């Protein structure tokens, strides 16, 4: 693996999942792999889980993680090629990224979309500019369109719950209401990874006009009828996203789309997943989050092992 920004960077998802589960069983088994290595973690946006789990993962491998809150503490970066920098940006990524490439061995970046311009966001300009100019492996901590560490974690968690079950699970991605227009990243990424994994019957359910980019969803069954989607589901992955076609809008915020224990009766005793943070009683009800079907804490705790498997793979590539 050269970089980790998409499922397409991973040759064998199952093998990465097994690597993560091996770290979960024995977190310090490669505690010297990252000795004398530095992992730079640039945040252009807020985070709790991604930041802490990736720092712990680096520490478990003996590497030093250095966090830089670019949005609060750094110079305002310019990403456009040939920009005339007479506005608010102070430093071009062409100048900043090569320096980070000298300071660090691996560069991890969180950079959310603007939700103003679909073409700009879906070009993944920011993370691609860091890949182009840093000269070192780049790990996405969530980019404009994808959240691969979260999706790897989600596959790890489903693999763990399934155990030795041979049956193909039914996995449902279910849109949920929200008060803000949110990116499509988690839903895009979950779709991309579940499709690439190829081990589930995958159904996506959302209200009309919330279609995601087909390059991520192709292969899934898509329905606007949530009840139909939930029937016999083994996993229900709940997430809000704003519209993709008429970009970044909230068209429908019907509270009827919030999952309840009553709706869960149609499932095969499904486990409920969410990447967190979650707006309680808007996206997901207390009764679900505090009930036996929720595996959101197990899922979030697995973020450490996902990050550790990815960092270990990239560190081995540098040996
Ligand atoms: N799921 C997730 O990425 O959480 P944070 O935004 O807290 O990192």
Present the secondary structure layout.
Layout: H1 13-25, E1 38-43, H2 49-60, E2 64-68, H3 70-73, E3 77-78, E4 91-92, H4 93-103, E5 106-110, H5 118-122, H6 125-134, E6 138-140, H7 148-162, E7 170-175, H8 185-197, E8 201-205, H9 214-217, E9 221-223, H10 226-230, E10 235-239, H11 261-264, E11 271-273, H12 286-289, H13 296-301, H14 303-318
Parallel strand pairs: 1-2, 1-5, 3-4, 5-6, 7-8, 7-10, 8-9, 10-11
Helix pairs in contact: 1-7, 1-14, 2-14, 4-6, 7-8, 7-14
What does this molecule look like?
The protein is α/β, with parallel strands linked by helices and 319 residues long. The chain folds into two domains: 7-146 and 301-318, Aspartate/ornithine carbamoyltransferase (Rossmann fold, 3-Layer(aba) Sandwich), CATH 3.40.50.1370; 149-300, Rossmann fold. The chain has helices at residues 13-25, 49-60, 70-73, 93-103, 118-122, 125-134, 148-162, 185-197, 214-217, 226-230, 261-264, 286-289, 296-301, 303-318; strands at residues 38-43, 64-68, 77-78, 91-92, 106-110, 138-140, 170-175, 201-205, 221-223, 235-239, 271-273. α4 (93-103) crosses α6 and α7 crosses α8 (185-197). The mean pLDDT is 97. Phosphoric acid mono(formamide)ester (CP) binds at residues 47-50, 142, 150, 275-277.
User: What's the domain count?
Assistant: 2
In which range does the helix fraction lie? Answer: 25-40%
CATH architecture of the largest domain: 3-Layer(aba) Sandwich
How do the SSEs run, as a string of H and E?
Answer: HEHEHEEHEHHEHEHEHEHEHEHHH
Number of helix segments? 14
Strands, total number: 11
Determine Rg (CA atoms, Å).
Answer: 20 Å
SS-derived structural category: alpha/beta
Strand content: 5-15%
Side by side, the strands of the main sheet go 9-8-7-10-11
- How is the biggest beta sheet arranged? 5 strands, parallel
Mean pLDDT across residues: 97
Using the coordinates shown, work out and report the CATH topology of the largest domain. Rossmann fold
